[in-house]
Amino acid sequence: MRKKRRRKDDVYAFSRCISMSPDKARRITAHLRGRFYEETLMILELMPYRACYPIFKLIYSAAANASHNKGFNKADLAIVKIEVNKGATMKKLKPRARGRSYMIKRPTCHINIILRDISYFEDFRKFMRDLSEEDQQKVMIGLQAERFDILE
């Protein structure tokens, strides 16, 4: 199995064992994919769901990591990938009448977020505009070969 390489212009943030259903978290994260950082914060502040706050904190933390650790501008960050995975289920028993008990299940979820600095792509677009058609094709062929690890 091929090992995944981390990109230099990506910032990662993970949150584990958040006490909410993965389905409720996915309902929110579906609206956030591909959006910019500031737009995402505004959307999360205005959504009426309880699950918004942990996601808001995680995105805010990822942007703080980007600005502190890598020196990125928060305005240039966009959400590339956001996943919600199922975590462990907390189980407890609720006592009922006549010595019976009912199981109470509290689902948890794990959220992974990847933010990317888009300013690198703007520089690349400017670079490509200045090239001729032949040179643009050569650059694109080189990028595809690098992407599929043909050239090393």
Automatic annotation (TrEMBL):
Gene: rpl22
Swiss-Prot/TrEMBL GO biological process terms: translation
InterPro entries cross-referenced by the UniProt entry: Ribosomal_uL22 (IPR001063), Ribosomal_uL22_bac/chlpt-type (IPR005727), Ribosomal_uL22_bac/org-type (IPR047867), Ribosomal_uL22_CS (IPR018260), Ribosomal_uL22_sf (IPR036394)
Pfam families in UniProt: Ribosomal_L22
Coiled coil: none
Protein's organism: Ercilla volubilis
Name of the protein described by the UniProt record: Large ribosomal subunit protein uL22c
Keywords assigned by UniProt, alphabetized: Plastid, Ribonucleoprotein, Ribosomal protein, RNA-binding, rRNA-binding
Superkingdom of the organism of origin: Eukaryota
Alphabetized GO MF terms: rRNA binding; structural constituent of ribosome
GO cellular component: large ribosomal subunit; plastid
Subcellular locations according to the entry: Plastid
UniProt keyword Nucleotide-binding present: no
Membership in a protein family: Belongs to the universal ribosomal protein uL22 family.
Matching CDD domains: Ribosomal_L22
SUPFAM superfamilies (UniProt xref): Ribosomal protein L22
Main localisation: plastid
HAMAP family with a match to the protein in the record: Ribosomal_uL22_B
